[in-house]
Design goal:
The structure is a single chain. Helix 2 packs across helix 3, helix 8 packs across helix 9 and helix 8 runs parallel beside helix 10. The strands form four sheets. Strands 2, 3, 4, 5, 10 and 12 form a six-stranded antiparallel sheet that branches. It is built from ten helices and 14 strands. It is of the alpha+beta class and 353 residues long. Strand 7 and strand 8 form a beta hairpin. The longest helix is centred in the first third of the chain and has 17 residues.
Length: 353
């Protein structure tokens, strides 16, 4: 499938026209707004986040944290324990969690959906080192990772200006119309799953998926909103030395089911982290355990997507694939007591003989 890269449609012109916003979301599978979030508030949060990252050794010493100048010696990504050690310190920042409750986003989503909405407990930060392109978030649908219902909405916002070369998000226009979870395969990058869009052309209502990827030069405060079936990806961070920082907040209708793992802090399955630890230094309890006041059905996590990817990684590693071997090494190191971790270690040991 040939790929083009075009501009996202800005929907600020229709922000007070709910039927038009609903039409655009239904037609295109996304909504994009310039400066929906307060840039000043995001700038304060950016400094907080990057100050923690600098203390963790990720940024060049002596530089202004807000510039996000990465130390290449500290390069790591999701799946590495050294990444999670710093990430979880960032995760404890109060403003990082509270921004998901900002009325300019939450009220907008409630108007679009016509009902009360709830931010999911598990907030996500994406912190990407420069020139680490093999770990760029691959093409995927969010449902395979976050589950719940197809109607859940992702709100992605850069924490700082994010031009194309820094690695913003791109969406495949109209791809949600496949109306199902597509087949995903093993890949490096966040989530370890990738969609082969060429293999699914026949699943779209008009006979093929759109070939037009949409992105932009994002500015601080911009927000991209899309449902759980929209196909999207990150662009690679091609800058010389800048860390890309962004937010993934997800929202669901109050009363809709939630997958059990979304009730836990992000990456707590890789390194233990409790909500009590997250909240330990907060000066307010307004948004602590807020989801418990809602009657939310809890669904077991669907593991088949990652189980299949693990089996593929094993097969690829046995065939000599270095990316699959790296994936197995990370799993064996961070989770040596689990069945998958032990299997990964066994496979790697056999390959070393």
């Amino acid at each position: 499938m040939p790929e083009t890269l075009a501009e996202l449609l800005v929907s600020n012109d229709a922000i007070d026209d709910v039927p038009e916003l609903q039409r655009r979301l239904d037609q295109d599978g996304y909504l994009f707004f310039r400066r929906l979030l307060d840039p000043d508030e995001l700038s304060k949060m950016r400094r907080e986040m990057l100050t923690v990252m600098q203390a963790g050794g990720w940024l060049v010493k002596g530089t202004d944290p807000i510039d996000g100048i990465a130390d290449p010696a500290a390069r790591s990504t999701e799946g590495d324990l050294e990444y999670t050690d710093v990430y979880h310190e960032v995760y404890k920042i109060q403003s990082f969690h509270e921004i998901a409750h900002r009325p300019e986003v939450l009220t907008l989503l409630e108007r679009i959906r016509g009902c009360r909405m709830m931010p999911q407990p598990q907030k996500v930060a994406r912190l990407w080192f420069p020139k680490f392109t093999e770990h760029t978030t691959p093409i995927h649908q969010d449902f395979v990772h976050f589950q719940g219902t197809f109607d859940n909405l992702t709100c992605w916002s850069p924490v700082g200006d994010c031009p194309r070369e820094l690695g913003g998000l791109a969406v495949l226009r109209g791809s949600h119309k496949v109306d199902r979870v597509l087949e995903h395969h093993f890949s490096l990058g966040a989530g370890s799953l990738i969609v082969d869009t060429d293999a699914h052309e026949e699943l779209a209502p008009d006979g093929e998926l759109q070939t037009e990827w949409l992105t932009t030069d994002y500015e601080i405060g911009d927000t991209l909103i899309f449902p759980a079936l929209t196909i999207h990806k990150a662009l690679p961070n091609l800058t010389e030395d800048r860390l890309r920082v962004s937010l993934d907040n997800r929202y669901q209708r109050v009363g809709d089911p939630i997958a059990e793992h979304m009730l836990n802090p992000h990456l707590s399955s890789m390194s233990p982290l409790s909500w009590d630890e997250v909240y330990a230094d907060w000066d307010s309890d307004e948004f602590q355990y807020y989801w418990k006041k809602f009657d939310t059905p809890v669904l077991p996590k669907i593991t088949e997507y990652l189980d299949k990817a693990f089996d593929e990684a094993v097969e690829l590693a046995q065939g000599g694939d270095d990316r699959a071997k790296l994936h197995l090494r990370r799993l064996a190191i961070r989770d040596p007591e689990s069945d998958l971790g032990q299997t990964a270690a066994t496979v790697l040991a056999a390959l070393a003989e």
